[in-house]
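Handoff note, outgoing to incoming analyst
You'll be picking up this chain. Sequence as last confirmed:
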Amino acid sequence: MTKIKSVQAFPLAYPEPHYKGIERYITLTRVESEDGLLGWGECISQFREASLATKIIIEQGFAPLLIGEDARDIERLWHKMLDRVWWYGPEGIAAFGVSAVDMALWDLKGKLLGLPVAKLLGSQLHHRVVAMASIIFDMEDLDWTLNEFRWLRAQGYRVVKAGWGMRPEAVFGQNRQKDIDIVRRVREVIGDELELVVDTPGARNLWDVPTAIQRFRDLEPFRLKWIEQPLLPSDLEGHARLRAAVATPVGTGEDEWNVESYRRLIQSRGVDVVQLDPGRCHGLTGSREVIRLIEAENLHWSAHTWSSALNTAASVHLLAISTHGLCMDLKPHESPMQHELASNPWAQEAGYLAMRDTPGLGVNVREEIVQKYLFA
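Most recent structure output, in case you need it:
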C-alpha cells in the first residue's frame, strides 16, 4: 500500500499563441505519495472563475477523501469522488475536478509501478498515434489562414483541422459563400493527400438541421474527414436527422461530460466520430469507459485535446489502447503549456506522436513554470 500524502490544485492563466495571444485557463493537480513520488493531471477549465472553483472542489472536497488512501486503487477512488459530487455533479465544474485528479492518479500509479499509463489501462496496441494539427480560422485574413495550412503541409502533418474564428463576430459557419470559399482554397493548398476537418461553433446554434444538411452537401466536393459540432450539442435528434441525410461523417461530443451523457449521444445514432477530452470527461478512467461504448457500437473517436502537455499525454495513452481512435488534436506551434510547462515537450514526426516508454504519463512538469502562470 502506498498512501496519498497530499492533493493540490493550481489554476493557471497563459497567453495562447494559437489564438493570437488571448488568455486561456487550465487547472493542474498534483498528487503526492507518502514516499515523495508525484503524479500530475490537468483539466481544461477554460475560464478564470471555473479554474478557481475547480481548485476549491479539489482541495476542499476531494483532498480530504483521498489523503491516506492507497494511491494505486484508482477506480475505487474515482467512484469515491463521484459519490461525493452527487448533488452538484457529475457534470460541470465537479467533472473538471474529477478529471484532473484521476489523471494525476494514473500518472502516479505508473511511476509507482514503473509502467507507462497505457499498459495500466489495458494493452498497448500502437506505438504511435496520429497528430491532427489544429488551428483557429482567421475568417478576416484568408492569406494568413492559407499560409498556416501551407506550413502545416510542409511540417509533414497527415490530418489538419481548423474552425471557429479569431473573433466571435467572425467565425466559420456564418456565411455560406465564405465558408465554401475558404474550404475550397484550403483544399487547393494542402492537396488531395492530406485529410481535412472543419469545426463549427455548434454551441452557438448557428445552423438548424436544414442549413446543416445544405452546408454538408456544399462541402462534400472537398472530401472532409468529418465536420465537427455542426449543431447545438444538446440536439441529439437533430444530429440523427443530419447524419441520415449526408455523406460526410458527423463529429460531436466535445461538450459531453461523463459516461452517461456519452451513452445518450452514442445511442442517438447522430454521430460518426465522437470527440473525447480526458481533461473534461472524468479523466482517463471515464474516457476508457466511453471508449468501450464507442468500440461496441463500431464508431470512431478523436481526442479533443487542445490544452497542455499533460492532456496531450493522456490522449496519446488512450489512443494507444484503442482500435477505434482516429487521431488527436495537437497545437502545431510552440505554446506555454506545451513547451514551457514540460521539460520534454511533445513533437510530431511525419504526422505522428510516438508513445513514450517511460513510467506514468511520460511528462516532466517544471514546477517553476507552474508558479510562473499561477494566478491563485
